[in-house]
């Protein structure tokens, strides 16, 4: 039976720690670190994410600024909002909730956020810094996964890590972080051959695919640590249910440790956003 990695409890600890550090920051600089969250449109999932982010920001003692824009906002108006936040000294972190409506250019907006305020860590400058081992802002989801793995396994040196998925927001930065920890890292994706055989070699499996319950017990080496990033809504007996990319019931008896969905990676992602906002504020004020 695997250890269930309780992301919710660990996230509460991270937020508590950030709150303590925010209090010291405030004493030292006489300002509160500020997080601005920009929400375009009324996508229900995005609204829930933004609400949770604002809630955690308040719990962390951060100053939260919410900018809501209508779904039909034009690119120039959105650019102007981001630009104002870039210039605002009370704002240390900016997050534009993705995905944006189809008519807006997501890449343009990611590139328009000042790199030092890019608490999502998606700006090419921060991606470059991460990959060259320089001080940066690390994408929140992989950072949360790394914290969970280190807490569960301690030193990760020499571990064989397989990441399923090569997205810019999860798979690739996760690989960079695990490489920094001296893991031997393999990324598999939709074109990979013999995926199950490759995953079976792993001491650490990170699944970030977006396919409900794809990873089965026969893919997993007994005792491996399995981090499930996937969030997939399915219907069971007419009711909506969230499941991961890992078949939890099937894999749990084989794995050494496993994250549940919900209650695993999700809460840690939000906690790491708070951590990044404080990091961004500290890096800005130090200069
Ligand atoms: P993307 O769709 O951007 O990337 C998915 C990756 O999975 C791609 O690299 C794709 O390969 C690969 N893939 C798809 N099908 C297969 C397959 N059959 N076999 C092997 N690889 C496959 O997704 P994201 O990285 O953005 O997100 C992944 C999941 O994580 C989603 O469920 C998302 O909702 C969730 N998520 C959860 C977060 C959290 O806070 N918990 C945060 C971010 C995401 P290819 O590149 O070849 O197409």
TrEMBL record:
Entry's Gene Ontology molecular function annotations: methenyltetrahydrofolate cyclohydrolase activity; methylenetetrahydrofolate dehydrogenase (NADP+) activity
UniProt cross-references to CDD domains, sorted A to Z: NAD_bind_m-THF_DH_Cyclohyd
A Pfam match: THF_DHG_CYH_C
Annotated EC: 1.5.1.5, 3.5.4.9
Pathway entry: One-carbon metabolism; tetrahydrofolate interconversion
Family annotation (SUPFAM superfamilies): Aminoacid dehydrogenase-like, N-terminal domain, NAD(P)-binding Rossmann-fold domains
Family annotation (InterPro entries): Aminoacid_DH-like_N_sf (IPR046346), NAD(P)-bd_dom_sf (IPR036291), THF_DH/CycHdrlase (IPR000672), THF_DH/CycHdrlase_cat_dom (IPR020630), THF_DH/CycHdrlase_CS (IPR020867), THF_DH/CycHdrlase_NAD-bd_dom (IPR020631)
Keyword Magnesium tagged: no
Keywords, comma-separated and alphabetical: Amino-acid biosynthesis, Histidine biosynthesis, Hydrolase, Methionine biosynthesis, Multifunctional enzyme, NADP, One-carbon metabolism, Oxidoreductase, Purine biosynthesis
Entry function: Catalyzes the oxidation of 5,10-methylenetetrahydrofolate to 5,10-methenyltetrahydrofolate and then the hydrolysis of 5,10-methenyltetrahydrofolate to 10-formyltetrahydrofolate.
Protein name, per record: Bifunctional protein FolD
Protein source organism: Candidatus Seongchinamella marina
